[in-house]
From TrEMBL:
It comes from Brevundimonas bullata. PANTHER family: COBQ_COBB_MIND_PARA NUCLEOTIDE BINDING DOMAIN-CONTAINING PROTEIN, P-LOOP CONTAINING NUCLEOSIDE TRIPHOSPHATE HYDROLASE. Coiled coil: none annotated. This is Chromosome partitioning protein.
Length: 282
């Protein structure tokens, strides 16, 4: 069996939408027929793992089969969060080894912050996807800007973490390894803003300097959040599966998901296999 592709959702700042991005990428891949294993390293919260637990419960109760990811067992997250680094890494290694044997793609959701688990995950990544809000607060983790001129000064702490991950892969594998790093602007407000134009200019400059690509994220839509309790995303909606009233906004959100998947190079998961969704039937 070929080695699975490893996608790491990473950003050392909380609140950037990592878990939201992770569950949408996973469901897009599942609907494309991929065998996806998920590892949630946000040990206390485990939003991604809880989402798919909700999914299993909803589909069973409503007799609506939907594809599910493989979830290697890492035990009680809250207990593991209190364990020492050695035990945490051992449990991660075991879960990762289990996923390697059964999955086409392993997606790892990392916590906000610099932890041993997060560093270990980044060191195994083939692709790192970093969501950031439409804000210089989030950009500060990627690059420092001059407070007077807003000129880009130097890469910041998370850029350095990705550099270390690339170096680790090169050392452990004994060859030059390319980790595809994609930064996506997440939770964008619908209206255009002067701040966004400034931010995009700095991102493009930093991208050339530290080696990432800029991709489209998911806008700040209520519909991305309202489906979470059911364990569903816009990729799951159809004329038969609609736990909420479906509108044209849901159709637009599907296109956003297609654009995201395409930007990540997951071309066979752009949404062409999704069930028809007729907003007029709502």
């Amino acid at each position: 069996m070929a080695q699975p592709q490893v996608i790491v959702i990473g950003n050392e700042k909380g609140g950037a939408g990592k878990s939201t991005l992770a569950i949408h990428i996973v469901t897009g891949l599942l609907h494309a027929g991929k065998k996806v294993a998920i590892i949630d390293l946000d040990l206390r919260q485990r939003s991604m793992e809880r989402f798919f637990s909700n999914r299993g419960a909803w589909t069973a109760a409503n007799e609506q089969p939907l594809p599910m990811p493989i979830v290697p067992d890492m035990g009680d997250g809250k207990a593991l969060a209190k364990a020492d680094e050695a035990e945490q890494l051992a449990r991660f290694d075991a879960a990762y080894a289990e996923a390697q044997g059964v999955a086409d793609i392993i997606l790892i959701d990392t916590p906000g912050g610099d932890t041993a688990l997060s560093r270990a995950a980044h060191g195994r990544a083939d692709q790192i996807v970093t969501p950031m809000n439409d804000s210089f607060v989030d950009f500060d983790l990627l690059g420092e800007v001059d407070p007077v001129t807003l000129d880009l000064k130097k890469p910041s702490i998370y850029s350095e973490s990705v550099w270390e991950a690339r170096k680790h892969r090169a050392i452990t594998e004994g060859r030059q390894v390319t980790i595809d790093w994609v930064v996506v602007t997440n939770r964008l407000a619908v209206a255009e803003a002067r701040n966004r134009r400034r931010l995009e200019e700095k991102m493009l400059k930093l991208a050339k300097r530290v080696g990432f690509r800029v991709g489209p994220g998911l806008r700040d839509r209520v519909i991305y959040r309202e489906l979470f309790p059911f364990g569903l995303t816009v990729a799951d909606l159809s004329n038969d599966i609609r736990p909420v009233s479906v509108s044209l906004a849901h159709v637009a959100a599907r296109q956003e998901l297609r654009n995201l998947m395409q930007s990540l190079g997951l071309d066979d998961a752009q949404g062409g296999s999704l069930a028809p969704l007729d907003a007029a039937a709502a």
